[in-house]
Amino acid sequence: MPNQCGWQSGRHQTLEQQRLALGNPKTIATGPEIQPPGRFALSSLQQGRSAIAHYRQDSTARLWDVHSGRQIFAPLTHRGWVDHAEFSPDERQILTASQDGTARLWDARSGQPETLVFRHTNRIFWAEFSPDGARIATASDDYTAQVWDARTGKPVGPHLKHASWVFAVHFSPEGGRVVTASLDATARVWDAATGEALTPPMRHEDKVHNAQFTPDGQKVITVSEDRTARVWDARTGKALLPPFEHPSGLTRYSPHLTADGRRVATAAGNVTRVWDLATGQPLTEALTHLAAVSTARFSPQGTRIVTAAGDRTARLWDATTGFPISEPLVHEDRVTCADFSPDGRFIATGSEDHQVRVWSVPIEAGPVPAWLPN
Questions:
Q1: 294-331 burial, b if ≥16 CB within 10 A, otherwise e?
Q2: CA-to-CA distance for 369 and 16, rounded, in angstroms?
Q3: Quick one: which of 69, 16, 5, 81 has its CA closest to 43?
Q4: What span, in angstroms and rounded, lies between the C-alpha atoms of 51 and 28?
Q5: Which residues contact 368 (CB under 8 A, 6 or more apart)?
Q6: CA distances from residue 117 to 114, 128, 151, 157, 267 in whole angstroms, order as listed
Q7: 179 with 231: CB under 8 angstroms?
Q8: Contact (Cβ atoms closer than 8 angstroms) between residue 329 and residue 313
């Protein structure tokens, strides 16, 4: 889902050979040239060496080299705030979504715009590639989502219509379905080729910020302003577990699932919770910040969680015990996003202090060998 800070998996997943001490970050993007008014967030990393840092109020997305901290090419410019940016699965293109009502493709090597423009009649909240890169899905406040052919730019099937804004759209793992989340308090699963609704509306009591498939494609997880996350059967649209209760409305940038689909992290207010998707029970005590949490992400191994919050910190937690396992990762302003590198060795954080920082993560201990004496 919508997570404004993320890493792009590629063939080369090591960020750099030199380890950085946790708490002694490497700042890869800072300075007057990257300080427009508005929000700064890291969106993706390509082949472990380049980062997209996208802005909102200056209507651009920008690509930075992780090692040198230099901007690689000119800004990718829209006519409205840029809400999302990501690499294609083959890392040859960059997809951006903007409040100007367009999603656009850019050459990831040169930064040049490609001719295809995917248009809605109003703001686009989200755009993403299908797993094979052949299609693009967009979500808009014109009350629709749309699937597009990424090669021709033509719509694939009709508009996927809701009764209000569509905040998010995500492909299923096999790419044959999409799930949408809307201000109309529903989520829904659709056939990505025909636009046929495959489930009845999955209803909350308030707007649904996000909806995602589990890694096996069998379930859908939704998060809502009604203070709940819910688990649904992706085939029938029926609720599978009681609601996961929270003290406040959930953030748009959750949920996040482990790779095996057994656990999910949700964030609401200043609290992150870890849940068992088989039983619906919380697995740890609440992971608590001093201000609202914007992001919660599992490490690739599922053993750690990083959270980012308005208290100017990101925190690293043990995903089994819920205990913090490092000092706070400190910025000078609200931390809007945090995520692990694909190999789990590094964390990237983005903040409204106009800085992106990279932190090394302590090596995780393996299992104790059976032959080792007590």
A1: bbbbbbbebebbbbbbbbbbbbbbebeebeebbebbbb
A2: 30
A3: 5
A4: 9
A5: none
A6: 8, 14, 11, 17, 34
A7: no
A8: yes
Residue 59: CA count within 13 A, CB half-sphere: 9
State pTM to two decimals.
0.86
Q: Which residues pair with 228 in a beta bridge?
A: 245
Q: Which of 232, 122, 252 has the alpha carbon at shortest distance from 188? A: 232
Structure tokens at 114: 């490609």
Contact 114, 107 (CB under 8 A): yes
Give the side-chain half-sphere CA count within 13 A for 342.
16
**Type of residue numbered 295:** T
User: What's the CA gap between 163 and 173, in Å, rounded?
Assistant: 26
- Smallest CA-to-CA distance from 158 within 145, 149, 170 is with 145
CB 40 within 8 Å of CB 34: yes
Number of Cβ atoms within 10 Å of the Cβ of 53:
25
Which backbone phi and psi does 84 adopt, to 5 degrees? -160, 150
pLDDT at residue 236, rounded to an integer: 98
Cross-strand partners of 358:
26, 348
- How far is it, in rounded angstroms, from Cα 157 to Cα 190? 11
Tokens 């690509």 found at: 63
- Edge-to-edge strands of the sheet including 160-161? 124-129, 135-140, 144-149, 160-161
Q: Which two tokens stand for residue 151?
A: 């090669």
Distances (CA, A) of 279 to 212, 231, 310: 18, 11, 31
pLDDT, position 253: 77
Q: Is the pLDDT of residue 176 over 60?
A: yes
Name the one residue in this structure whose structure tokens are 């919770």.
Answer: 273
Q: Alpha-carbon distance 289 to 339, whole Å?
A: 17
By three-state DSSP, how is residue 34 classified? helix
Structure token pair of residue 74: 């000119």
Burial 74-88 (b: 16+ CB within 10 A, else e): ebbbbeebbbbbbbb
pLDDT digits (tens, 9 = 90+) for 96-112: 999 999 999 999 889 99
